[in-house]
């Protein structure tokens, strides 16, 4: 929790400072509510969440004198309520051999790192894990996955540069099935500048692995970089149109002054948030705890 709290402290400092400025010895009137709404939007919570929180304040506290502390407590409670329904750990069904996780996300979002962290976590739980280096266009991505595989103790299936990602995914699943692996993590390309090609590629991977297991993939996750703020919201919209996402992982919350984006994502999409990234090391992946997050966010 330390790292997440330290990371979110920048988001919190911004928000808390703003709230203190607006509310010290002041009645909750229209002008104060408007200023609070601006603070919430500046904290990346998004216009819808901001409007909802303001509406709530207006109906319960209008005309009363409120302290910054009260405002923060009310905010934390409200944010916690928005986050609670999406906080769901990713459950691996070990009856599937393997449980197939397809990982999507734009380049740089932390996809490969997150796959490595998940692999390590499942290995620690005693599961047999394999990974497929599906970003076949970027040699660096393949090498990076191999490094993570070595660290986590998981075999990485690769293919020559520029080869077909779907056929690699198919090979990897066939090998994982043969080996009796519990989990197969499939990395994918993140070339968002060519959306149509990326969509075709992701859909083809899914089509092809279904030839070996009709129920696969069992999870389709999108990795998002919190530091990109509202861009993360845009990315969910784009990827949702490409594939049926089943959940999100939000990375880089350790150094981000934009933790509020998680609230905007929760409100807008309602997709499960399975975990949050809090650093570059193998253990820096945390379960998403809505109350803890809400409290850390408002400081
Ligand atoms: P990909 O292109 O989506 O596969 O992204 P990578 O996994 O290569 O990650 C891009 C960069 O972000 C790397 O330098 C990672 O070390 C870094 N990174 C990934 N997750 C986190 C995180 O949770 N916190 C921090 N601080 N850095 C991260």
TrEMBL record:
Write down the Pfam families for this protein, in alphabetical order.
SRP54, SRP54_N
Chief location bin: membrane
Chain sites annotated for binding GTP: 105-112, 187-191, 251-254
Ranges for domain SRP54-type proteins GTP-binding come to 98-299
CDD domains referenced in this protein's UniProt entry, alphabetically? FtsY
The AAA+ ATPase domain covers: 97-255
Family per record = Belongs to the GTP-binding SRP family. FtsY subfamily.
NCBIfam families noted in UniProt: ftsY
Q: What does this protein do?
A: Involved in targeting and insertion of nascent membrane proteins into the cytoplasmic membrane. Acts as a receptor for the complex formed by the signal recognition particle (SRP) and the ribosome-nascent chain (RNC). Interaction with SRP-RNC leads to the transfer of the RNC complex to the Sec translocase for insertion into the membrane, the hydrolysis of GTP by both Ffh and FtsY, and the dissociation of the SRP-FtsY complex into the individual components.
User: Would you tell me the protein name for this molecule?
Assistant: Signal recognition particle receptor FtsY
The species this protein belongs to is Acidocella aquatica
């Amino acid at each position: 929790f330390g790292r997440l709290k330290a990371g979110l402290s920048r988001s919190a400092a911004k928000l808390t400072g703003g709230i203190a400025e607006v509310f010290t010895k002041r009645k909750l009137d229209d002008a104060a509510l408007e200023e609070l709404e601006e603070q919430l939007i500046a904290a990346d919570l998004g216009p819808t969440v901001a409007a909802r929180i303001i509406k709530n304040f207006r109906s319960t506290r209008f005309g009363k004198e409120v302290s910054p502390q009260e405002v923060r407590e009310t905010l934390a409670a409200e944010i916690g309520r928005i986050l609670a329904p999406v906080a769901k750990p990713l459950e691996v069904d070990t009856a599937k051999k393997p449980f197939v996780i397809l990982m999507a996300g734009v380049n740089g979002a932390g996809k490969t790192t997150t796959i490595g962290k998940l692999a390590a976590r499942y290995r620690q739980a005693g599961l047999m894990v394999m990974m497929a280096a599906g970003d076949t266009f970027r040699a660096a991505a393949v090498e990076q996955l191999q490094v993570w595989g070595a660290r986590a103790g998981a075999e990485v299936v690769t293919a020559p540069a520029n080869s077909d990602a779907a056929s690699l995914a198919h090979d990897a699943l066939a090998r994982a099935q043969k080996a009796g692996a519990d989990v197969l993590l499939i990395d994918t390309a993140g070339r968002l500048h060519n959306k149509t090609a990326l969509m075709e590629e992701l859909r083809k991977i899914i089509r092809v692995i279904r030839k070996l297991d009709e129920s696969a993939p069992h999870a389709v996750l999108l990795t998002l970089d919190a530091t990109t703020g509202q861009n993360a919201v845009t990315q969910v919209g784009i990827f949702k149109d490409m594939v049926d996402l089943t959940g999100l992982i939000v990375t880089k919350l350790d150094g981000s002054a934009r933790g509020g984006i998680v609230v905007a994502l929760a409100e807008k999409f309602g997709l499960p948030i399975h975990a949050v990234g809090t650093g570059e090391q193998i253990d820096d992946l945390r379960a998403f705890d809505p109350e803890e997050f809400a409290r850390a966010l408002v400081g």
